[in-house]
Structures are given as structure tokens and as C-alpha cells.
User: Fold this.
Amino acid sequence: MNDGEDKITSWFADQSDAPADKFPIGIGDDMAQVTADKGSVLITTDMLLDGTHFDLSEAGFEQAGYKAMAASLSDCAAMATIPVCAVVAVALPVKTPPEALMDLHKGIVAAGSMFGCYLVGGDITAWAGDGRFAINVTMLSKPGGCLPVRRSGAKVGDIVCVTGTLGGAIKDKHLHFTPRVEEALRMTEIVTINSMMDISDGISTDLKRICDKSGVGVTLDGRDVPLSMAAMESDDPLGAAMNDGEDFELLFTLSPKGYGKLIDEWDLATPISNIGVIRKETGISMVMKDGSVVEVVPKGYDHL
Amino acid sequence: MNDGEDKITSWFADQSDAPADKFPIGIGDDMAQVTADKGSVLITTDMLLDGTHFDLSEAGFEQAGYKAMAASLSDCAAMATIPVCAVVAVALPVKTPPEALMDLHKGIVAAGSMFGCYLVGGDITAWAGDGRFAINVTMLSKPGGCLPVRRSGAKVGDIVCVTGTLGGAIKDKHLHFTPRVEEALRMTEIVTINSMMDISDGISTDLKRICDKSGVGVTLDGRDVPLSMAAMESDDPLGAAMNDGEDFELLFTLSPKGYGKLIDEWDLATPISNIGVIRKETGISMVMKDGSVVEVVPKGYDHL
Assistant:
């Protein structure tokens, strides 16, 4: 009997408040249907694993659901796009109680509803033997007022900026962060952002990705890297800010003129820090507190 | 250093032949961009697990990739929609060699390329300790010549049909099946299909889903259920056809007049069998070889 599966699917469908004009087909059929009024959609998929991306026994299902959705919302922000909907698939350990799925749902919806992003479908499956919890979120977004902002657009002379503060996110922030969707959409209303991504593996690694894609290098000023409280409590605050990852802040570049305009007109609470400048020569170097210059080696988290 | 992850992402991007006019942004950025020329997209997500949906040591990475994509293509077929693209996320056991990802890619592309469905993004992550292989495919499709065919449209008097033959798919077919995309698109060119889904959990379970969604029941003729070779080799061929699941054939209903037209004009090799009729009274009953009538209890695979 498949009553368990079908009952849970019905429960999920009953919770949905996705408007029928935008989502003519929702949870419970073979696929969900999403209207695409802007001529294109953007798509991102991310798999989060118990023991790798969170510790389920500490975080619980609700916060695991929140983090999985928030990480995908952060990808929408990274391209300055508007979140539309998500489908979520989970692999459950044997004997996971149905209440766990309700907790999970609560976390998913809490994150999505911050930005009008609906849960429109999913898949629930269970390990046959031993197996830890895995959750996969795939999210669709649509372009905002500009073309989606790519990693590859950094130009020589661009100012390199980050939102918020960096480092030590693993202590707590990685489960509770607010994705920078509002910030990304607001900044692209004010100015043209040349390149952007979200910081998941630490800026030493993620900046290299922007540089590699754009064919440029960067000179950072270590004194300007914004340190989180958690980073400041560590033995190596700047190292934590550069390498810890999971900050889910925005890393972006724009012209010096654009930077001036952005700072003048910025009206959100989240701080923006100017941490360096894009240069022609490849590589990443950083000016330290004592005026010395060091080469930055990517030390962020490697998923493989 | 994240060279491993970035190198593999680059390798995946290099393999892509997704046309830039349809996919302005492909593998390697925070999201992929997909043009949506028909005003809506459909989305499905499915997580397949080693030990549950296949045995990786037997199937291998290539066939696991093939099956995961084929299962999602089967969902596109189930709604009579045209596959567009997919994003694929994987959770790898520790020490999975890079060659395994190339094998996986081969299987993914082999399935997708049958129907012009491009791989446009993904996520590669690894278990921190013990953990078996998991693969999640999310696929986008677009409407064909008709509205997407739902589960909920079965009408009293409709003929109930299936494509192909049923039962015993676990022996081999579940890894190698051809999704019925072509069949679904062709039949909806010929006639109006009132309800449809693909058979993943066995028709005893999947027919109940159509009946529940449509508020109807069905009388089957057990003598007309098409048995696969594998089913015929089993102790209970009809039971295998009803309950085994993983057939990935189409289960659909249409008016008697439509059925006549479909059979007259059907020009594909895949057989279509008339196995029963939709009735007003809920429940599923089946006429047996000896003329007796039995109530069908859903016995398909329950994922929970």
C-alpha cells in the first residue's frame, strides 16, 4: 500500500498557497506547471547532506529545510533574479516519522515565503538500509530589472565589494542566514553590477572563480575585509573571513563610478564593503595590516 | 583548494552542446538560464538512491545516470510535454574516482539526447563519512500541441489504456527502458487524452492515483493486461504486471470514440492495450480469466 506516500503528498498539497494563475499545476501530479511571463527562467539545484552541510541531530529537520531553501535563494540573489518556486526532494533515513516531514516543510516554507518563492513539487524517498538524510532543492527564478548578473563580467578597474560580514558562519549563521535577495535586486536598481556570485566556499576560493571566469586578477586590502563577530573570536580572524565559507553573502564587482553611486544611494541596512580592485594580471594578492603584500591561495571548502 | 570541484565543473561545461540561443547561461554559473517560448514551463524532481532504485555495484554509474534521467523523461511523457533541459545533483561516496563522474555523464547524456533534453547545470557533493550514492534529476519541459495532461481528467466511460507490456521490470528493464516521450506526443496529436501518468509503482497503485484524483473508479479486464516476458516467467504473471512497478509505461484514459481513432491511426511500434473502463463507483475491480470479479488492492511499491 502506498497510502503513506500519497497521504503525505496530499498533506503537502493542502499546505500550498501557490496562486493558480501562476502555477496552473501544483503538487500531486507528474510535474508542476509554472507560467514564465518574462521569456526565460533560471534554474539552480543543490544537494545538502547530513554530516556535510549540517548536522541533522543538532540542526533538526526544520532548520535543515530552511538552510536548503535559503542556499538556493542565495543563488537567485547571486544572479540578481527574482525567486519564483522550488521543488524539493528528500532521501529519508529508515523510520523517519511523518512529523519530521512537517518540520522540514515548516523550514522550507519559512525560507521561501520571505521572498514569495512557492514550493510546487517534490519527491520523498527513503534509504533501504543505512543512509543519512539528504535534501535537494531546485529553484526557478526570473530576471529582475536587468540581465542576470554572471560571474564572468568583472572588468579591470572594477571595485570588489561584499555584503555583510565574513567568517565563522559554521558556528551558527549557516543555518539561519537571510539570503541577500533584496540586496541584490536593490543594488541592480541603482547601478550596473558587472559580476556577482554568492560566497559559499570563502572569498579566497570564490573570488578566484570570478577571476577565472572573467580572465582578470584582484588586489585585496585585508584591512577592509569585513570581519564577523564569529571571525573576530577565532585565532585568525582574517583567515576565517577569507576561507571559512558558508557566509552566503554577495561578492560583486562594479565600476568605481558605479560604486560611488551605489554607496550614495544605498538605503538597506546590510553593509557593503569595498575590499579591493580588479586588475589585469591574474592571481589574487592582498595588502596586509603591516603594508606587506601576500599572495592569496584558495583555501575554501572543497566539496570533493 | 577547490581545483577538483572546479575542474570537474569545467569538464562538464566543455561537454555541453546546449545551444546558446535557448540556454543563454549554461553550466558553471550560479544558475542556468532557459528561454521559455511557450509561456510556461513544467518541472519535475526525482531522487534515486543506491540500494533503493538501483544497485550501484551491479548497474554502474553510467546506467544509474541513464535511469535517473529516463525516469524524469518519463514524467515529461506522462504529461505529454516536450523535455527541454535538466539539472542533476549527486551525493558521492567518499573516494569516488573522477572517472565515475564521466561514466555518469555518459548515461545522463545518452538518455537526454534521445529527446533533445540538455544537461544545463548541477551540483556535485560528497558524503563526509559513510554514505551511498544518490542522484537527483530536475527536469524542465514545455507544453506540446495540447495542454499538459493531468491525472485528474479521467471521465466515466473512458477506456483505460497502457503502452507496452508490464511486470518484472526490476529484472532488467528498469535500467534500460525507453521513456515514452514520442508515444505521448504522437497520441496527443491524434486524439484528446483525458488523463495520464507513467507507471512507476505498478498499475494497482498508479490507477488508484488517477481514480482518486478524478473521483472515479475502474473495472479492469485481467485478460487484457499486457504481460511482459519477465512477468510471464514469474509465478504470478498478472500479479507481477499489476504490482511490480518500474515499468515506466504510460497509463491513460480517453473516450471510446477517441480510442477507436487512436487505434486506427496509431503508427508507432509500441503497442497500446485497452485494459478496462472508467466507472462512476470508486474502487478498482478486475474480471479474471475464469469470469470471476476481484477487488484490486494497491500493492505497488511504497517509498515510505
